[in-house]
Amino acid sequence: DQSVCAPLPVLGRDVTVPLVTGGEVTYAALDYAASAPALQRVWDDVAAYAPYYGSVHRGAGYLSQLSTDLFENARKAVAEFLGCRADDQVIFTRSTTDSLNLLARTLPVDCQVFVFETEHHASLLPWQDAHVTYLNAPRTPRQAVATLERALADRNPHGPALVCVTGASNVTGELWPVRELAAAAHAHGARIVLDAAQLAPHHPLDIRDLDVDWVAFSGHKLYAPFGAGVLAGRADWLRTAEPYLAGGGASRKVTRRQDGGVDVEWHESAARHEAGSPNVIGAYSIASACKALTEAGWDTLVAREQHLITKVRAGLAAVPQVKVLSLFGDDAPRVGVISFVVDGWNSSHFAAALSAEYGIGVRDGLFCAHPLVRTLLGSDPQAQGECGAPEAAPGEKSLNAIRVSFGAGTPDEHVERFVNAVK
Ligand code: PMP
After folding, report:
1. For the Aminotransferase class V domain, which residue ranges apply (predicted)?
2. Where does CATH 3.40.640.10 sit in the chain?
3. Ligand 1 pocket, 120 CB below 6 A?
4. How large is the average pLDDT for residues 318-327?
């Protein structure tokens, strides 16, 4: 363990919380998959810049110019972090959900969309206005590629198509075979968008190496504060689609017509989909997080996280009542996101006890991936879930699960406390 680096300093690392059993403990934030604590370094960068921030792309003053430069440099830093191609666009959005909804508005006419039923709702649902094919849950990465290939082979080969796939599952933490799925998509003339909400915080990510057309991720899972996300990738669909939002900043020229109407020329750059005053602090903090992670070094970060994963999985495996949820099996490569159920326990009560008795914050529910969690639990596809799931009687199947997730800021003590608490 001596070879494993120290956790990166994050906000909230000294926060103490009261226990029902008396006394207090430092809070163990083990819900990184929902939102990771911001890196102290990101917070310091934002604090240093905050006194100087001003309007972006719409002010002649010094601070407006400074902010415009910082905003555009943030775009370049994200492009570098993702290994973007020269003609890719980087659009600042509110979140992964926002990014994928934006992309859904740019689909060419008659575009067919292919998405596995195992996706997070942010990847599963934005395509409802298109012709969507929902693919059944594969049980191996190879089956995922074969399933996609079969579905693409059956499609109209002349029309446009898009595949949407996650890089790392927000339920099982398992990595998806993105490079192979991208190759399959391209071999059949389809495009592919990567939902990197859970991949980007845990794993190096290179848009060219993976050969995906777009990448979407959220700042608040990448150790930056809430409120900003990214959609990066091919410019062609983005450049020709109607703007995501109509308004100032997206429009290059607006003129009154003779007939009384209004004509608009929209920008073709990223500004086309960034109408309104942008979230300059959000963009700046994402760029700061990208730089901090790159500087910390992915080899080191991945080694540390794998060390924590080993501890948690070994600890859970030692408790016979615990069942870890998995699609691809024990040997699948994974990030620090692990979901499980405990025989004889209601998952919500279990999670509440971890909080109240041990100061540990995890998540319970169906994790915005209802079809996947129901498949993994073997529960009725119509079963109630999320909030207010009825109690499973002893020996009955759970209707929801518990998720523990961690990353670059997690000290060993947090996962050790978690494993002991479960025991
Ligand atoms: N995709 C995945 C895989 C996720 O885990 C999440 C968040 N849980 C999202 C998309 C949506 O991210 P956001 O809530 O930041 O839009």
Report:
1. 30-418
2. 43-295
3. yes
4. 97
Measuring from atom 6 of ligand 1, which residue has the nearest CA?
A: 197
Residues of the chain with CATH 3.90.1150.10: 16-30+297-422
What is the C-alpha separation between 177 and 322, in angstroms, rounded? 27
**Bridge partners, 116 (sequence order):** 135
The closest residue, in CA terms, to atom 5 on ligand 1 is 170
Q: What is the CA radius of gyration of the chain?
A: 22
CB atoms within 10 A of CB 144: 24
Cα 61 to averaged position of ligand 1 atoms, centre (Å): 37
| DSSP string across 129-182 | TSEEEEEPPPSSHHHHHHHHHHHHHTS-TTS-EEEEEESB-TTT-BBP-HHHHH
Whole-model pTM over 0.90: yes
Are the C-beta atoms of 103 and 214 separated by less than 8 Å? yes
Q: Regarding the domain delimited by 43-295, which CATH topology (the fold level of the hierarchy) does it fall under?
A: Aspartate Aminotransferase; domain 2 (3.40.640)
CA distance 96 to 198: 10
Tell me which CATH code domain 16-30+297-422 carries: 3.90.1150.10
The ipTM (two decimal places) reads: 0.99
Strand partners, 89: 233
How far apart are the C-alpha atoms of 388 and 276, rounded to whole Å?
A: 39
Q: Is the CB of 403 under 6 A from ligand 1?
A: no
Task: Quote the DSSP letter at residue 287.
Answer: H
* Rounded Cα–Cα distance for residues 64 and 49 (Å): 12
Can you tell me the distance from the alpha carbon of 194 to that of 209, in angstroms, rounded to the nearest whole number? 13
The finding on whether 166 has its CB within 6 A of some atom of ligand 1 is: yes
Amino acid in the structure at residue 7? P
- Other Cβ atoms less than 10 A from the Cβ of 382: the count is 7
Phi, psi (rounded to 5 degrees) for 23: 75, -170
Mean pLDDT for the chain? 95
* Spatial distance between the Cα atoms of 237 and 251, rounded to a whole number of angstroms: 17
So what's the pLDDT on residue 160? 97
Which of 7, 14, 42 has the alpha carbon at shortest distance from 28? Answer: 14
In 318-383, alpha helices (H): 347-358, 370-377
Instruction: Give percent of the chain above pLDDT 70.
Output: 95
The position carrying tokens 């998806």 is: 176
pLDDT digits (tens, 9 = 90+) for 85-99: 999 999 999 999 999
